[in-house]
Design brief:
The protein is an alpha/beta fold. It has 11 helices and 22 strands. It has a domain of 267 residues.
């Protein structure tokens, strides 16, 4: 069943009010949206990174309900159902997930959760549903890790957010099987602005996986989602992203976690798609002994500029961070890595390490590494290492002399290069990433 058509293009107060009215939101959420709209109108575009001149914010439709929510996969329109089948979502739901939410354009269209996980008291719901059912809880955390004033695209998100996932894990509860959200941009000209909010109470643990894709259109498309994670004392949150947007998407996300005393927050990401990505998952280490690890794999191909990185802000003693990036660049693409570790005056005993390695597959491929290590006290251990190299002709020759084609040899070398990241991704998804990689090596130059 088809939903409502997209709202008119452009961002005005009327559009923001219509989105809020469409969702039946409480007054506090509308006030937050309007505050974010004012911030958006006042803040400048980013003064660093990729060229965003092709993004015309007046030509974006900021909300579209193109598919109505359903209770089973079979009820989805055939085109959407075939897409989700091809992506393996129904199969993954049966075999490897504790819960799954699927979003098309601006709205979540399908959600499930295992009964035993629900019985643990875990809340796993579309964001709008959580606003209605758990308003006080959502209000306490919504856009508290990333306020609208943080940057222009955080403000844009705050004004027009739609869809996404709310996860709340009770104290001491371990969710042993991952939860997943999948986001699909299906309609040309419609932006996607899902909001994911994860709250892990003291001593709990959860692994959340997000996947995203879009069909290819000629027109530039905008994705500006947001992820906020609150890992309370001794909680453990792992957030895995598999991003394969089509090559016309501008992926301008904001992701930030607050880690309290003894908490651990891990980010793992594989980025293959989009025309432009700007994404720097950040962990704020608020309590003593908090830890974070950020493992990122980026594969940039012809015409792409993937500007990614990670940040760790040490605000408490004996905190630790490890930021590791592996980038592969093919054709005339560009990969940029920005790694930042900040250590406050009171964060004595902090340890931070930044590591970036890039493999260039063609003479035109470009890369840039921008590390920042900033410590305001002397009782710290900080380190940075970076390497850039090309595929060795000797290695290629050796493998080809053993019967491999050039494409197979290149695939083997690249898979070995990125294996430290792939081994951290659940098996079903790492296999898919390897397959996508192998499909991309045709025509690559050593």
């Amino acid at each position: 069943m088809k939903g409502k058509p997209a709202l008119k293009k452009g961002l005005t107060r009327e559009v923001v009010e219509e989105i809020s009215r469409e969702k039946g939101e409480p007054d506090w959420m509308l006030r937050l949206r309007l505050k974010a709209l004012r911030a958006f109108q006042e803040l400048p575009m980013p003064r660093f990174g990729p060229d965003l001149s092709e993004v015309d914010l007046d030509e974006v439709a900021y909300y579209a309900r193109t598919v109505e929510p359903v209770a089973s996969w079979d009820e989805l329109p055939e085109e959407i159902r075939k897409t989700f089948d091809a992506l393996g979502l129904p199969e993954a739901e049966k075999e490897a997930l504790a819960g799954l939410g699927a979003q098309v354009d601006s709205e979540v269209v399908y959600r499930s959760i295992l009964e035993e996980v629900r019985a643990q008291g875990v809340i796993f719901e579309p964001m709008e549903e959580a606003v209605r059912k758990h308003g006080d809880l959502v209000k306490e955390y919504f856009m508290r890790a990333i306020p609208p004033e943080d940057n222009k695209f955080a403000a844009l998100h705050g004004a027009v957010w739609s869809g996404g996932t709310f996860v709340w894990v009770p104290e001491g509860v371990e969710v042993k099987i991952p939860l997943q959200g999948y986001f699909r941009m299906q309609t040309q000209g419609v932006g996607q602005f899902e909001h994911t909010l994860i709250i892990a109470e003291p001593g709990s643990s959860v692994h959340y996986i997000e996947g995203c894709s879009a069909p290819r259109y000629t027109k530039a498309a905008l994705h500006a989602g947001m992820v906020e994670v609150f890992a309370k004392e001794n909680a453990h949150v792992r957030f895995t992203t598999i991003q394969n947007w089509s090559r016309n998407v501008y992926n301008l996300n904001n992701k930030r976690a607050l880690a309290y005393a003894g908490a651990t927050v891990d980010w793992v990401s594989g980025s293959l798609g989009s025309k432009v990505t700007m994404l720097y998952p950040t962990t704020v280490l608020l309590g003593p002994g908090a830890k974070t690890e950020n493992l990122g794999f980026t594969f940039a191909r012809d015409g792409q500029h993937l500007d990614v990185g990670a940040r760790a802000l040490h605000l408490a003693p004996n905190t630790s961070s490890r930021l590791v990036s592996r980038s592969v660049v093919q054709g005339d693409a560009k990969a940029t890595f920005r790694g930042k570790v900040y250590v406050a005056k009171e964060a004595r005993g902090a340890k931070g390490h930044v590591e970036c390695s890039t493999l260039l597959l063609s003479p035109e491929a470009r890369t840039e590494t921008i590390p920042t290590l900033d410590a305001e006290n002397d009782e710290v251990e900080l380190g940075h290492e970076a390497t850039v190299g090309r595929i060795s002709q000797e290695h290629l020759f050796y493998l080809m002399s053993r019967g491999l084609t050039e494409q197979e040899a290149m695939s083997l070398i690249v898979n070995g290069f990125v294996s430290p990241i792939l081994k951290e991704i659940p098996l079903e998804y790492s296999v898919e990433l390897k397959r996508l990689l192998e499909m991309s090596f045709e025509g690559a130059q050593g």
